[in-house]
């Protein structure tokens, strides 16, 4: 039943005045491929030349792209292959020597990190009506099925293996690179593009010598974008993504500078610019200002931290919950926690959940890992009477940790609801004094019932 105050408000909320900041958000996506690619002319020329032999009946050169994240590796190959396929579709002259369809297959090797799973996905991309087991057969059986499918459909492939360093790719690369004129019909080709953030991928021994000899790749290292390149990229995207005139003159240079400081990361700059637009909308203003970029930067840092924490093991999340609890129990004059206080809390939470209690050495190691991730500050202190310990401080907002990480786990959520109450997203969070506190004697610790 609506209240009296609500009853008279019948105006649709979407008819209310919303600041018009964005024109087309798709343009800000990392997956977006613009019609013209800026700031990578030399690399585009290299890749075009490596693929162009197929226009005269030859085979494309296999490629390995190496470079930090956000340096344009994926967008460059997408752009060049799109241009190639568009050219082949338009050209109908007799000089064209291609007599097969060309299929573009992208595989993320962090998600598909076995040879069999990669082959399975390629087959499904060619023909998703084919039914084959995901597991249970020898690797050679899957390769034989792949050759059969390629020949039956008379299709050539560009296979993009993103994050190839996340898998043992020797068997996959060896067999794919040797398929032409051996396993697949004459005139068909398989072009391989391996992409990695590891700039030493080809030199640190991950790929066997016989595989490198068969693959014979052209290695292209993507250097970081500088601030001028990033500004050019952002200005190009902003034309289509934002309403004209909504960006203050300082916004794009600031976003470009931030990306340049982070190993020339275009994704970071694009994400920062987009988030700044959302911040402006939240503030109900019609122009994106420098202050919105700075607020967006803080939001993105927290979101990135949350993504990292979600991948941490249960014991690390439990330990972080103990740090949060003790942090909010501390006296106002206490600027940090001690390892012993956190460990006592950890033992109680572990017993409450009937989980294994790790020893002090392992807990110290987990605290060190959380410190490395910048979730907490935990420098070692050897000056106190209790000997070597850590001074532990929280580095990111507690509310975000609880809402986005802790409550996703049933066991941890149960602890949170018992300690903080049922409304676990209340702000500020009120904490009843139910668990171990450094001010209590060890014999009087309280458990939740």
Task: Please describe what this structure looks like.
There is one protein chain. The chain is 45% helix and 10% strand. It has 449 residues and is α/β, with parallel strands linked by helices. The protein folds into 3 domains: 13-25 and 226-309, Helicase, Ruva Protein, domain 3; 40-221, 3-Layer(aba) Sandwich (Rossmann fold); 312-444, Arc Repressor Mutant, subunit A, CATH 1.10.10. Strand 8 and strand 9 form a beta hairpin.
Query: What is the arithmetic mean of pLDDT?
Result: 87
Distance between the termini: 37 Å
- Major β-sheet profile: 5 strands, parallel
Number of helices: 16
* Backbone structural class: alpha/beta
In short:
The chain has helices spanning 4-7, 41-51, 73-90, 115-126, 139-153, 170-177, 209-215, 227-241, 251-261, 266-282, 290-310, 314-329, 339-353, 360-372, 398-404, 410-420, and strands at 63-66, 101-108, 155-162, 190-196, 218-221, 337-338, 376-377, 380-381, 389-394.
Keywords, separated by commas or semicolons:
Rossmann fold, disordered N terminus, Arc Repressor Mutant, subunit A, five-stranded parallel beta sheet, Helicase, Ruva Protein, domain 3, 45% helix, alpha/beta, four-stranded antiparallel beta sheet, 449 residues
Strands, helices and their partners?
Elements: H1 4-7, H2 41-51, E1 63-66, H3 73-90, E2 101-108, H4 115-126, H5 139-153, E3 155-162, H6 170-177, E4 190-196, H7 209-215, E5 218-221, H8 227-241, H9 251-261, H10 266-282, H11 290-310, H12 314-329, E6 337-338, H13 339-353, H14 360-372, E7 376-377, E8 380-381, E9 389-394, H15 398-404, H16 410-420
Parallel strand pairs: 1-4, 1-5, 2-3, 3-4
Antiparallel strand pairs: 6-9, 7-9, 8-9
Helix pairs in contact: 2-3, 4-5, 6-7, 8-9, 9-10, 10-11, 12-13, 12-14
